[in-house]
Amino acid sequence: MGRRKKDFNTSDGFEEWGGYKKAKVSKLDEQFKDESKIVKISDIFQGVAIMVNGITRPPADELKKLMAQHGGVYHMYQLSSTTHIICSNLPTVKIRNMGTKPVVKPAWITESISLGKIIDFRRYLLYTHQSISQPRLDFKVIDKPSTSMNQSTTNISPEKSTKICVESEVKSPKKIEVTSRSTKTASDPNFLEEFYNNSRLHLISTLGAEYKQLVCQIRDKHDGFFLGRKKLAATRGNTTNMQQENRETVIMHIDMDCFFVSVGLKSRPDLIGKPVAIAHARTARTANDNTENRSLEFAMYEERNGNIAAGASRVANLDGRASMSEIASCSYEARKCGVKNGMFLGRAAQLCPDLITLPYDFEGYKEVSNLLYQTIASYTVDIEAVSCDEMYVDCTEILRETGLSVSEWATHVRGEITAITGCPCSTGFGANRLQARLATRKAKPNGQFHLKADIVEDYMSDIPLSDLPGVGRATLAKLANLGLTTCGDVQISSLKCLQSELGAKVGETLVDQAKGIDKKPLNYYQERKSISAEINYGIRFKSLEEFWSFLQTLSHEVYNRLLDTGMRSRCLTLKLMVRAATAPVETAKFLGHGICDNLSKTTSSNQIIGSADVVFNEAKVLYEKLNAPFCDLRGVGIQLTKLEKPGNVDNALGKFLVKKSEEAGRKIRDISNETTKPLVNITKGNAHSKIVTKKDDKPNNTPKRGRPKGSKNMNKSISNKGKKSLNKTVQNNTINKLFEKKKNVFLPTPKKMDIDLNVLNELPEDIRNQIIKEYEITPLELIQNNEKQKSTNNQPKRQEKPLKPKKEDYSPFSKLTWEEIRPIIKHWIERETVPDKSDTEMIAEHFKKLALERKIETLTRVFNFLFRVFASLDCPWHDAYFTMVNITQGGMVARYGNVLAINTNFGCCCM
């Protein structure tokens, strides 16, 4: 029996050609109308129908909701009635097949809603429809022009049209607002956001800081399991017969090759092997001729730089129309023609006429950087982040556990990085960071090189001194006067001669570097020293009100960055770039800063900066003191320093205010201190101590303590920004968790009636009010507590039995890291006129415990910090420092049978 054909319902519309599709679209439209019954806010998108293509921010569901709320229509498919296509990125195939519908960024919708009116979509076009042979006419966008204006500019060339607009602005009493996306200045309310969204330097600095914080998070949260290392070791089998080279310390330097270009070529594989550069400008020639101003500015530039060849060559052969857009990155094919990173596009096009420029891909850079760091984190957490595409890695343990040689490991890790990220990288290996970095230079491009110990000096002899870190133009000039240009020249030079010319420390460091010696270890915990927001492009103000408005916006930006780190600041610096007196008003680079004088001023109040309004008010006062004309400003920046963690510091105050905790701690310390005595005397004046004998029972005659000048809190900042989800084949769940947001750790909160009012009254007003607010202390409770404490003090003390020492001595610092202890010590120094002996010994006992736990790297950082701070204080604080040294050295001798090299050369009466 044959299969019976299904009867069609002639009334459902499906019998027609395309009927199903038509019915589906109709159904989706009806669903949208049903969903649009939500409360309508406005009709600004009346007559607008959008279709979202790909991933956008905000996402498609959110855009659908916004269109329903504001009178628009949302299409799931592109129809003839669709007016706009919304997307953030499109592949090359879709670009080629793109129709005539305008392709607009989602910001067009969100910003139109924020302004309460629909904005000209041409400012938000993602792609235009012109070909190479038909470039876009660069008309300025004029908001709501009059009818007569439209008629007068019809059928006029772009040059004439522009001229008429300018003349009408001068002659007509009614000013026409002219805005252009390509010519925004700082007076535009949206300038700051757009500037940072398109600034490569902002991206590089931001990502660099984020990955340094990320490494800290990874190390703090890691459970010791490395999936990548275990898999690699499993493929090797028995690793007992390890090679001799794997027993020494091996530092690896990873650097992605032409990072920006490599990411750009992922979407343009047809350009591989061609000269490519990344820059904002698309052409090497500008529309306007600025020869006169450029000649004057270039002459001033060379004069200020002392006619240095490197500086002069940067602006050489640039005429009045050559583009001064900087090249952020260029391929090796372009470098063969003489093109370099940082070169102006106009000069690069002269050297390489076939140079192709690509736009920036900020999201692509972030994605590849995340994959890079995640890949390495699957093998080790001994990472020092340098930037988004560069890092140092101590791979000693990897080589020992897997049994791989350096060459085998380099081949493996480079292959994995290339496979996961789609971008090539180069690796260099050496016994220290200097050797590893210089080895990478030989490995490039897309290679690897191991600088072994037996060839280090020979290899270094040909290295130019300019390649050494820390050797700048001033040092190079001094060395050139001595006839020294390479590391080999320094190797055969006299140390005394170099020290007499460069200084004792710089001369010694230079000799070590010339031999491939670098005593600086990898820094896994890099701390944020400052937070700033600076702009030196597009700064043009026509009135003081425009400058105040911009300064207020910049204040909110820098304060939001401070909030993102979870820290607070006590110091603000305003930085200004002011046009030099003889510099031309019109700069060589369009809207650039030109030749400027740099001015700065810092607040001295030392008060906590608690809001964006405080930032603005402080910056406003500093600007009025600097008295710089707003019309000559070419750069504005706000920097916040003296950073500290509010949670840790506040709870540390609570610790210091709890009487019972202090008394219990002192009793236990009295027992433990009986076994802690100075072991050996040391001669006074020695720069590096072994064990120091301080003067016992020395009266503290100094009523006033000194304070370190310009001391800064260098707490590490934890970024609250989330990370993208990363490739699952690379990492396990443990590593992925390391990329999550770190929670703040707070100390236990003391009971409010355990607070010592005598100490509370001595605190600064802002801190005192904060404690009263935090513990919800009422005035009545303050009076009752005061009377209670007085009556308690008048009662005869009961004789208490000595406490038995516990297995583990009491210490309020036992569960804190050094980064969390440092602000507590800073607060202790600021609060106390003379250090209390019990407090000093309590801190020292914790350092002794670190010595017993073999945490030498932490101790080195601790005493380097303490010496810097205590060096500017008075003798009683120096005595406290010596006490800490003695107790700590006791732990060193007990653990290692030797002492730690600690600087004690204060040069005062205590020595």
UniProtKB/TrEMBL annotation:
Q: Which keywords accompany this UniProt record? A: DNA damage, DNA repair, DNA synthesis, DNA-binding, Magnesium, Metal-binding, Nucleotidyltransferase, Nucleus, Transferase
- The BRCT domain covers which part of the protein? 40-126
**Localization of this protein:** Nucleus
Principal EC category: transferase
> Which positions are annotated as binding Mg(2+)?
D255, D389, E390
Cite the GO molecular-function annotations of the record: damaged DNA binding; deoxycytidyl transferase activity; DNA-directed DNA polymerase activity; metal ion binding
**Xref: Pfam families:** BRCT, IMS, IMS_C, IMS_HHH_1, REV1_C
Q: Which parts of the chain are coiled coil?
A: none
Per UniProt, the cofactor note for this protein states: Binds 2 magnesium ions.
Q: Which InterPro entries match?
A: BRCT_dom, BRCT_dom_sf, DNA/RNA_pol_sf, DNA_pol_Y-fam_lit_finger_sf, DNA_pol_Y-fam_little_finger, IMS_HHH_1, REV1, Rev1_C
Q: Which domain of life is it from?
A: Eukaryota
Region (Disordered) spans which residues? Answer: 685-730, 786-810
A Gene Ontology biological process annotation?
Answer: error-prone translesion synthesis
Q: What sequence ranges are listed for the domain UmuC?
A: 251-472
Q: Name one GO cellular component term.
A: nucleus
Show the ranges annotated as biased composition (Basic and acidic residues): 797-810
Q: Compositional bias of type Polar residues: which residue ranges? A: 786-796
The prosthetic group or cofactor this protein requires is: Mg(2+)
User: Which SUPFAM superfamilies does its entry note?
Assistant: BRCT domain, DNA/RNA polymerases, Lesion bypass DNA polymerase (Y-family), little finger domain
User: Which E.C. number(s) belong to this protein?
Assistant: 2.7.7.-
The job of this chain, per UniProt, is described as: Deoxycytidyl transferase involved in DNA repair. Transfers a dCMP residue from dCTP to the 3'-end of a DNA primer in a template-dependent reaction. May assist in the first step in the bypass of abasic lesions by the insertion of a nucleotide opposite the lesion. Required for normal induction of mutations by physical and chemical agents.
Q: Family assignment?
A: Belongs to the DNA polymerase type-Y family.
Write down what this protein is called: DNA repair protein REV1
Organism of provenance: Brassicogethes aeneus (Rape pollen beetle)
